[in-house]
Amino acid sequence: MRVATWNVNSIRSRLDRVLDWVARSGVDVLAMQETKVKDEAFPHEAFGALGYEVATFGFSQWNGVAIASRVGLGDVVRTFPGQPAWGDPPAVEARALGATCGGVRVWSLYVPNGREIADPHYEYKLAWLAALRQAAGDWLHDEPTAKIALVGDWNIAPLDTDVWDPAFFAGRTHVTPAERDAFAAIADAGFTEVSRAHLPGEHVYTYWDYQQLRFPRNEGMRIDLTYASPALAAAVTGVTIERNERKGAQPSDHVPVVLQVDVP
DNA sequence: ATGGTGGAAAGTCCA
Asked: Are A32 and A8 in contact (CB under 8 A)?
């Protein structure tokens, strides 16, 4: 079974490219982030024509997550327990969606960006990650043999070699010790980030900004990552980063990351 | 080749 994650940066503006890739890649499950569409406007029919059901969670033009599956879509849950709120009035955002697909509990996650270190959004990001660590630890505690995948756009580069120029990011978000500690805390809860073991190279990126020729210059970041529970980590036999999906007309600024999972 | 920001409740905010 193949499980993919992709920050699509608007499913409506990206629909043809996403469907084309889904058909070519033959993934069984696709977790999407930044769908930027409310639930009632999501293009379910287009996915249905390819044999995929889709669970969606979106309120507005911001954020939005979805999971498309052709191997079942059960126990759909919107938001994780304890997920912090944001805004005025405070509201829980559309950044986390869980569903069980082919025996794997998939969570499509869009971690808050953080904006600037001095911005309240940065503290929101850290609180969001701390709450996720608690929830994920509880899931594993309740069912130690569960196959759980925490996939998505983490908006954190765990290593200096996950960005094109550490000096550029000095004083900016995505690389601070507090963010990296919050990311590492998911591992303390019993999960393993599985993409690096399969793709250990340095300067292997999943995102390139639209500005400043970042992609032609290969100036990117590795921020789309996958934490797996022990049972799932043992079943992952390969990971690919679909770099070609950053090329051509009207790409997302992120590319898909695909897990090959050896499930019975 | 992969090309000089893009998306959206737009005229500003978010990334």
From this structure: yes
